[in-house]
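Subject: sequence -> structure tokens, single chain

Hey, anyone have a minute? Need the predicted structure for the following. Not urgent.
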Amino acid sequence: MANTFPIPATFFLTSGVGVHRDRLTAFEFALREADIEQQNLVSVSSILPPGCRMVPREEAVRTLQPGEITFCVMARTETDEPGRRIHSSIGLARPTDQKMYGYISEHHGYGMTHEESGEYAEDLAATMLASTLGIEFDPNAGWDERKHVYAMSNLIVDSLSLTASATGNSAGRWTCAVAAAVFRFAGP
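Reply:
Had a minute. Here:
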């Protein structure tokens, strides 16, 4: 049977942080900062379709319609603990062969710095792609060493990440951090 559901043609990366006394409103404010608050978001898993192009956020956001069903890979973390460090990251790894699919990872939690969370998410995506492509690597090696092995294979064109991080509001208001890879079915 033929695939009757469309496959995304483009995607963009976005992130935001929101703070409010209500948890849901903090999430809404984070989505506003990310420019995706007017969408009906549907979370999907980690596959970047073959040939799916990354487009600039500003360009893609102009094509969004209020109420539109919008598919995304999303990382979300919230806290109402003053001073607690939160992070949400999206990692991306794309193969050199555009007929092959790539990976998007979401990573979210507490305690990591902005940079640590981003590197972890990028590492997750690149490692999933490397294992799919049959690239041999030492899983116990550090990220920098594995990244070099992946680059030398010429099978992975690039990997990157986007992170939203924050520290819990000093007054105990809800703080929410979101990062997302948002799919579009037609290019902007």
